[in-house]
């Protein structure tokens, strides 16, 4: 399996550009070890021996982790990131590192240092970001599953754009020790996979407390695979019309509502919820993420600004313009958004919404099309995903169908540390086969 996966990924990388490095010899040694253990009946679980690559901001001990940057082009960590060590314990075979938007601050994965990643559904389109290499690798079968990081949507955006399942867990559910930070109060790590069951298995492997991460929470970890199944009868779906269904591509809205209607036909009910503070979410997300990211990169902005990509350099400079008053006011708004989300979720099981309000544009475009009008790509892509980073609540995207030849994602937002319910509900959507068996044209 690993040999064939590596051969295929090497051959396909000229087309997709999902990988920045390969671990051929190390991966084969890990695969041989896994094969011997499995043959001896020492099976570690459902991921034992499975080959997969990881986003290049997750440290692998003794190996280069670049963050898709020039500044960290030769950085070598002495330790594995916590999720990496947990995947190793589960028996995963690591095949390489995946392309990403520089320092995870961007949503088109058009890297000035490693080149653009191409969407396997349409090679001219962006794959989303910042985990664009991760999304493209799984959708094109270059990696079985993978992990992404998500600060404003960077798991869910590329998962939606590539027709995948992507889960941003509750903040603190997955420890971030050994993951290069973008914005420490917003960052999350989670699975990107082809199916809900694969995402459940991945989350089960990486979830848990690690005292080395000050944001990690010591909370019980569910058996996420065992939580799947049942039927949607009695499920109460919250719908927030004023924010999540405003200024949305008409076909995206139709597909998402069709998936909700299908669940209703199977016994679920819909209840409208109101979250007025969402009107502050876009400003709050940017004020928080830009301020924290600029603090992390402040010294490099002084010492070597020319080594950042132009788009990232601009954003980090922009982040230095926010005052302490701006940042603290953003945290007050953030608390209000979280309180209103929590109150809304007291009355429903989950909240459903589109993952993205627009479709993936061509590589190099700074705008997307919204029902015939151009809109800023970054603002549009993070508009529906950013609120869950502000609140820390878990959010799952699953395929809702195809708009033309490109995938559309449906987002499911839930209660804190209740990823089991999100995955179960995602499975209900998956059962309706919204993609009708279609796969990316550039898959194996």
Automatic annotation (TrEMBL):
Record organism: Gordonia hirsuta DSM 44140 = NBRC 16056
Keyword ATP-binding: no
Ranges that cross the membrane: none
UniProt cross-references to InterPro entries, sorted A to Z: Amidase, Amidase_CS, Amidase_dom, AS_sf
Annotated GO MF terms: transferase activity
PROSITE patterns from the UniProt entry: AMIDASES
This protein's name: Aspartyl/glutamyl-tRNA(Asn/Gln) amidotransferase subunit A
Residue ranges constituting the Amidase domain according to the UniProt record: 2-423
Keywords of the record: Transferase
């Amino acid at each position: 399996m690993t040999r064939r996966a590596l051969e295929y990924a090497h051959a396909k990388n000229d087309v997709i550009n999902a990988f920045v490095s390969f671990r051929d010899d190390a991966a084969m040694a890990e695969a041989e070890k896994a094969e011997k253990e499995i043959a001896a009946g020492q099976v570690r679980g459902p991921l034992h021996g499975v080959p997969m690559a990881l986003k290049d901001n997750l440290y692998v001990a003794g190996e280069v982790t670049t963050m898709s940057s020039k500044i960290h082009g030769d950085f070598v960590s002495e330790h594995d990131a916590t999720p990496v060590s947990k995947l190793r314990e589960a028996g995963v075979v690591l095949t390489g590192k995946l392309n990403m938007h520089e320092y995870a601050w961007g949503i088109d994965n058009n890297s000035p240092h490693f080149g653009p990643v191409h969407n396997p559904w349409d090679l001219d389109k962006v794959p989303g970001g910042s985990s664009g290499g991760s999304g493209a690798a799984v959708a094109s079968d270059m990696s079985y599953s993978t992990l992404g990081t998500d600060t404003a949507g960077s798991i869910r955006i590329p998962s939606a754009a590539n027709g995948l399942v992507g889960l941003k867990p509750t903040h603190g559910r997955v420890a971030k020790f050994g993951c290069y930070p973008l914005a420490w109060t917003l960052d999350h790590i989670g699975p990107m996979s082809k199916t809900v069951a694969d995402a459940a298995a991945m989350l089960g492997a990486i979830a848990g407390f690690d005292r080395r991460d000050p944001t990690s929470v010591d909370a019980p970890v569910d058996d996420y695979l065992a939580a799947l199944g049942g039927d949607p009868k009695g499920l109460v779906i919250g719908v927030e019309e004023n924010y999540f269904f405003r200024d949305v591509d008409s076909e995206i809205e139709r597909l998402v509502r069709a998936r909700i209607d299908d669940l209703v036909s199977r016994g679920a009910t819909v209840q409208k919820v109101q979250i007025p503070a969402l009107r502050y979410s876009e400003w709050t997300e940017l004020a928080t993420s830009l301020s924290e990211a600029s603090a992390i990169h402040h010294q490099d902005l002084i010492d070597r600004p020319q080594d950042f990509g132009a788009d990232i350099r601009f954003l980090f400079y922009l982040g230095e313009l926010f005052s302490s008053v701006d940042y603290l006011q953003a945290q007050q708004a953030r608390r209000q958004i979280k309180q209103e989300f929590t109150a809304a979720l007291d009355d429903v099981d989950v909240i459903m919404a589109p993952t993205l309000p627009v479709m993936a544009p061509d590589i190099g475009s700074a705008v997307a099309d919204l029902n015939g009008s151009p809109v800023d790509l970054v603002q549009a892509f993070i508009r529906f995903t950013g609120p869950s980073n502000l609140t820390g609540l878990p959010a799952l995207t699953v395929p809702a169908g195809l708009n033309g030849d490109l995938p559309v994602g449906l987002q499911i937002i839930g209660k804190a540390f209740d990823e089991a319910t999100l995955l179960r509900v995602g499975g209900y959507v998956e059962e309706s086969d919204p993609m009708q068996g279609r796969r990316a044209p550039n898959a194996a």
